[in-house]
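Predict structure. Chain length: 174.
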Amino acid sequence: MATARRRLVLLPCLLSLLLVAAVSGDDAVAAAPSAYEMLEGFGFPRGILPEGVTGYRYRPSDGAFEVYFGGDCEFEVDGGYRLTYRRTISGNVEGGSIRNLGGVSVRMFLFNWGIDRVVMADAGHLMFYVGPLSQAFPADNFEESPECRCRHGGGNGIADGGSGGGVGFGVAAM
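Prediction complete.
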């Protein structure tokens, strides 16, 4: 009889603990930073990543990331450059530096060139590298994330989606 009472007393305690754990787990998931917040945490303005991120992965051990969009997208930036983001972009990020960037290209001289590195040169400038070439842009050009024209079906067309501001690409969680 005493054992049965003890079980009845323990059952509500166990259920309360499970409920608290479930609520805490939901809070932990809800508190996960967005890809834009992750960028800011590494010292970059959020506007180097266009709107439309559907998810990301980030691996802290080596800074590897992947950022996912609903499809390829593109937009124009100051200077007449057209940037294209593939459905998935990837690279490695650490304070103020993104290297091994894949999936982001810029249209120059009638060709698309892959942007392979971005460095926060100082508080006021971002350096974008295409092989041995580089171009500096004022960081305040990237305060807001640009809207892009999404290219659906692997680039079989361009849907209207607005025009964008700064240059872009992004960070993620693995």
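Summary: The longest helix spans residues 2-30.
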